[in-house]
Amino acid sequence: MEHGWKLDETHLDTYRRDGLVVSPFRLPDARLAAMRQSLEQLLRDNADTAPESLVCPHIPNGPRHDVAAAARWFQYATDPAIVGLVAQVLGPDVILWGSQVFCKPARTGRTIPWHQDGQYWPIRPLATCSVWIALDDATPENGCMRYIPGSHRAGSVFEHRRREGDDLVLFDELDPAAFDATDARDDALEAGQFSLHDIFLIHGSEANRSSRRRAGFVIRYMPATSLFDRSIDRRQDQAGLSFSFSRRPIWLLRGADRAANDFTIGHGEDFAAVPRISDDLQDPRRFPAPRSAHPTPTRARFRSSRGGKLRPET
Ligand SMILES: O=C(O)CCC(=O)C(=O)O
Fold first, then answer.
1. What are the residue boundaries of the structural domains of the chain, listed by start?
2. How many CB atoms lie within 10 A of CB 237?
3. Ligand 1 binding pocket, CB closer than 6 Å
């Protein structure tokens, strides 16, 4: 994709002030088409999982799909053009530690209750920039993300309480006393647009009662000055899915590690063929833009221990 992407001071100020900025750049049509095609495969391969909770399609032990499919999501998540924007807000040392497809089907798409991401994640000190990429148009009608501008600025995680329900994607909900929902702003995006948001931002989204699907792919990056602390492991559950961070693989994408992060855990057999990713991500020859809507799978990057079938993370 475009390697010349750079956020200007106005956009950086918006990120610092509001905790979320809509990127002035958007995915090229060919990339969007490729991602939407990958999404269709992901949904087909995971028909028994809530489509709002397709956690880490970029890793072979994430949702069940073939190794080549995981490699494609990995390419999307490590696109140097996107990582370059993230480095502008996080600093030069960038780790990819997670991703998720939040696909809300028409009419039945579930609510994502108000929360702060920091409530859920084993990163110390808490720091992450999430890039939320719209794979469909995301509007107030189909349940686009909503957020409270500036709510990240306290730099703390407020009280959350447990609320479980079949209509919910996440079960830790922010105490309503912590914020004023009338301040909420819509993160409305056209397909191919994306926004960046901070780990302390208060956000959530309504159920999708419209006749149009709302799918987004979110990529999580942390600065390598923080530790992905697997000892904090707290089992996560989402809409019928249960998973753990204890074996989650992470990658250093740019710069250097400053916090003794472990880049071997979870890379096990499935990752035997995956090179350690580093600054050479910035080499466009390594991640060429797809020439068509059918990018060539990079099979060599992953190897599965079970004849091409992936292990679920749980
Ligand atoms: O997809 C949504 O509406 C919310 C996603 C979210 O909570 C996140 O990316 O942190």
1. 9-301
2. 13
3. 102, 112, 117, 130, 132, 145, 203, 205, 216, 218
